Amino acid sequence: MVPFKVYTQRDLDKIEPLQKLSEAMRFEMKVVSSVLPFRVNQYVIDELIDWDNVPADPMFQLTFPQRGMLSAEHYDTIAKLIQDGADKATLAAAVNEVRQALNPHPADQMEMNMPVDDEGNRLDGIQHKYRETVLFFPSQGQTCHAYCTFCFRWAQFVGDKELRIAASEASTLHDYLKEHTEVTDLLFTGGDPMVMKTKHLAAYLEPLLEPEFDHIQTIRIGTKALTFWPHRFLGAEDAGELIDLLTRMVRAGKHVAVMGHYNHWKEMDTDAARAAIRAIRSTGAVIRAQGPLIAHINDDPDVWAKMWKMQVKLGIIPYYMFVERDTGARGYFEVPLDRAWEIYREAMQQVSGLARTARGPSMSASPGKVEVQGVTEINGEKVFVLRFIQGRNPDWIQRPFFAKYNPDATWLHHLEPAFGEEKFFFEDEYEAIRDERIDAAQA
């Protein structure tokens, strides 16, 4: 069995390659990781990061905190407290204040996506934003083998129960799915469900093979394990049991999709990563690749083109290019929508049709997934061409709409309707849905 060795903020001084960096840079890491979660493992350190190219190396940027991930004001506040030897309570209060300013749950996740039972109690660990798809956050899967520095779910990992989304009972999920036969797709997410022992994952999955769950056609498992710990599918303690579980689910008639989170082609460029991909594909499960476009890591069309080509070669289906969400260290990672579309377009021009299955650049905003389809000029006005890939109201899907061109926009709320319109076509209905959901949640 391959050993799994992990490092967190308290272990920064124990990571040998970091000792080659300046004391100032190591202090910056300590400051930033006091606010944003940090977790890395020996596989990432040894196999993925090019330490001769630090700090520019994309895998280093993906996993290790950088000073620019906090605003100057927030950084200076926390740095001074640490330098002055502030007590734990004072530091914790300041850290919490900074975290609250970082929009810990974007797109109204807590207010609008979490259903309630017949008595008005919130069903923790379940999100049901789109008609066909339910997201489930198993409590045993609310960590990862390593943390991405850009993670939009960073609030799951900072130890604050008020910010965490998780469910501890499988029955909560199963009871909800029995009542909602409109649901066809179930997405296990987190954190990373692949940190769970196979027996715990099986407790959630195997009951779905009963006839009462025939409406659940697709089981998706969102994971970064193919990058951060491919041995989960190879030499880990219960890797064989995991492969057997996936095989059973497929043979029983479920479509199993492993939603691999990929940000760079380097993540697939190790022997272990490729062996893990082969192991999953041997079960009959499909691997679909998704990830955000992020500055300092993959804001280059050549990187995306090479990644998509490699994915197709390895039997992975390119699925999504996301826009970096408006949370956490977004100021460090965000890319203007105009540039995001250019990168997507230039990358698509380099690949064959089999790699053009990736949709994007897509914003997972509160109304739905909004794709930037291009920039054009209509009647003398420069505009963004947008459409819903997914929406709170299915009627919005595939309807094109237009926004005034804004070269600095990085998210949907930065955009204004084009052609003199006061509102986008969906806004009134969205506000009504939002009011209804919030009233129900607060009842």
From TrEMBL:
tRNA-binding keyword on record: no
Protein name: Lysine 2,3-aminomutase
Keywords linked to the UniProt accession: 4Fe-4S, Iron, Iron-sulfur, Metal-binding, Pyridoxal phosphate, S-adenosyl-L-methionine
A molecular function (GO) term: 4 iron, 4 sulfur cluster binding
Cofactor: pyridoxal 5'-phosphate; [4Fe-4S] cluster
Family recorded in the similarity comment: Belongs to the radical SAM superfamily. KamA family.
InterPro entries assigned to the protein according to its UniProt record, in alphabetical order: Aldolase_TIM (IPR013785), Lys_aminomutase/Glu_NH3_mut (IPR003739), rSAM (IPR007197), rSAM_sf (IPR058240)
Residues passing through the membrane, by range: none
Native species: Denitromonas halophila
Tagged with keyword DNA-binding: no
